[in-house]
Amino acid sequence: MQRGDVKVWDDVYDTSLDDKAAPNLCDVYFRREVPLYTDPKEFFKHTYLTKSMRELIEEIADSLEGKKGSNIFLLTSLFGGGKTHTLITLYHAFESPESLRDLDEKLAAKISRLGRVKVVVMDASSTKLVPHPAEPYEAEGFEIRTIWGMLAYKLGRYADIEHLDSKGSPAPDIEKLRSILSGSKDPTIILLDEIVPYVFNMTRSEDLKDYGEKVILFLENLAKAIEPLERIALVISIQAEYRKGEPTRGALQGRSEKDTEAHTQGDHQNSSSCSP
Asked: Which of 5, 43, 267, 274 would be 26's cystine partner, CB 3.0–4.6 Å?
């Protein structure tokens, strides 16, 4: 829509979006969101990539190519600061690099050279993506009860960790995780969202407190397992409100930290939990 010399996006006048909360990674993954977020071409058509966002995508692409540098990235900001939006940007960029071409042809070509990239989406606000012992995920004839069980399942290595996939089992150690992670033939990026509220809720549940403590150890072991590996990257969102005094933060201390600032036309600042 044209207003004088200014072109205004049609969705600005779409009243159905007025009360809409910000998108969730799991809703984008399950295609339950509006096309503005689920269609990669539409998403990038409405997205402005900041310098820091371009640099983040380039660094991750370099990591997946096997170049030296950090392969663990923490996205930190206050509530509504763009962490999940950044993860959605990464999801579309590495799943559908061609859709990025009109926005940044050089960046799209860089990602395309990687070939097929395995994108593992772990949104802890949904038990379909990150289950826990009280709400397991129903797979093909069996249940997945832990976050590490789900990660192994998504990497096609569940059999290697099945004996540890229960409430009473210990978190897998560094060597076990490294063995599972290094088995992928394709470059792999793991997107982990809403993990802090997940741990917060587990550790404050009388029945799941011990499991919550094991999740903290798992995160620490996961980071250590990934660090020496090539062609794999881990991106984790951390709410700045939890940065001090939270065990999740301590488990990831010293990792590469990025402030989030990607912008999409029509984006809303309210947040909502993903449907299970």
From this structure: 274
Identity of the residue numbered 36: L
Domain membership flag for residue 6: no
- Contact by Cβ (8 Å): 67, 113: no
- Write out pLDDT tens, residues 60-107: 999 999 998 999 999 986 444 578 899 999 999 999 999 999 999 999
Cβ(263)–Cβ(18) under 8 Å?
A: no
CATH assignment of the domain containing 74: 3.40.50.300
Q: Are 90 and 60 in contact (CB under 8 A)?
A: yes
Residue 94 counted as domain residue: yes
Q: What is the pTM of this model?
A: 0.86
Under 8 Å between Cβ of 233 and 73: yes
Query: 40-55 burial string, b = 16+ CB within 10 Å, else e?
Result: bbbbbebbebbeebee
